[in-house]
Amino acid sequence: MNFAKEIKQELLSKNIKDKCCKRAFLAGVIRGTGNLFLQDGEYGLEFKLDSEDGANRITEYLSSLYGFEMREVGYTLNNRYGKEIITLNIHGQGSTKILVDLGVLIENGNEYAVSLKLFDKVCEKECCIRSFLKGLFVAVGNCILPSAKSAQTTGYHSEFVFYHYTTALEVAKKLEDAGVKSKITRRKGTFIVYIKSGEEIKNLVAFLGCPVSVLKITDLMINREIKNNSNRQKNCDLGNLNKQVEASAKQISAIEKLKSLGEFDKLKKDLKEVAIARLEYQDDTLTELAERLNLSKSCLNHRLRKIVHLASEL
């Protein structure tokens, strides 16, 4: 099971008690994936879900709020893409009035129009905004976490997919109000509200009310930080080792040059002592060689640099 499904399952496992929040949840699902149609003088709605639990929650809330019986909702399984899709149809039994109450339609006398404002009618309280975003995530939300086994991966990613920019912008603003930073991009005719930060995704999941999923993200973030710190230390150690090898090779080359030009025996006693030790213990680090000669590391380094400098002038 991918992480998005885990979040959705956690959301759907909790029954929403307040009627206002049930309305907001239904509105969020419908706004995310619904397609409006008119048939026999009655407006209807078709929307798709990838979860039977989601379909059951929808029908349960429709029944408790509006007396809309489950037998009036049609299920269609679509396995064309290897993914089970459940298509629900809401039509008849006063479906137009239901869509008005959910803020999808605006009633003006005997005429109806689609409301372009997502949150106004069904999200008067903060709890309802939360429920609306829960429904929206169930409908069009996605979340991918990096592999816990590797620090090299695609990283954290969560998104909501919409067909209209104004809708994406309105959702992004509500997320920001909830303390979740997101961005908007366009992808193949759709608008994506996306989050790339693990910390911000954790904030989103916490706002949606999924403590189990929050703990999973937190655990992953801690483990990855430990792994990344370990890798950084290894890279740092390797970099230092490479520098030491290069410096040692440069020093040995300088000493050999002095010998070949007959300048080695002209070195001062302290420099000559260091040069002989460097040739004898070529694999020693600067610290190890300093200990052998009973010198400080800075003193040894100064003498070796002096030897390299003398050789460079010949």
What does this structure look like?
The protein has 314 residues and is α+β, with helices and mostly antiparallel strands. It folds into 2 domains: 3-209, Homing endonucleases (Endonuclease I-creI, Roll); 227-312, no CATH class. The chain is 55% helix and 16% strand. It has 11 helices and 10 strands. The protein has a 4-stranded antiparallel β-sheet with strand order 1-2-4-3. Strand 9 (183-187) and strand 10 (190-195) form a beta hairpin. Helix 2 (19-33) crosses helix 3 (52-66). The model has no long low-confidence stretch (mean pLDDT 83).
SSE map:
Blueprint: H1 3-12, H2 19-33, E1 34-39, E2 42-49, H3 52-66, E3 77-78, E4 85-90, H4 95-101, E5 105-108, E6 111-114, H5 126-140, E7 141-144, E8 157-162, H6 165-177, E9 183-187, E10 190-195, H7 198-208, H8 211-260, H9 269-280, H10 286-293, H11 297-312
Antiparallel strand pairs: 1-2, 2-4, 3-4, 5-6, 7-8, 8-10, 9-10
Classify the helix fraction into a percent range: 40-55%
Q: pLDDT below 50 for ≥5 consecutive residues: which ranges?
A: none
CATH class of the largest domain: Alpha Beta
| Helical/strand content category | alpha+beta
The whole-angstrom Rg is 34 Å
Strand content: 15-25%
At the third CATH level, what is the topology name of the largest domain?
Endonuclease I-creI
The overall pLDDT, averaged over residues, is 83
Q: Biggest sheet, in brief?
A: 4 strands, antiparallel
The multimeric state of the shown protein is single chain
Distance between the termini: 70 Å
Number of strands: 10
Basic shape? rod-shaped
Order of helices and strands: HHEEHEEHEEHEEHEEHHHHH
What is the CATH homology-level superfamily of the largest domain?
Homing endonucleases
Total of domains: 2
How many helices? 11
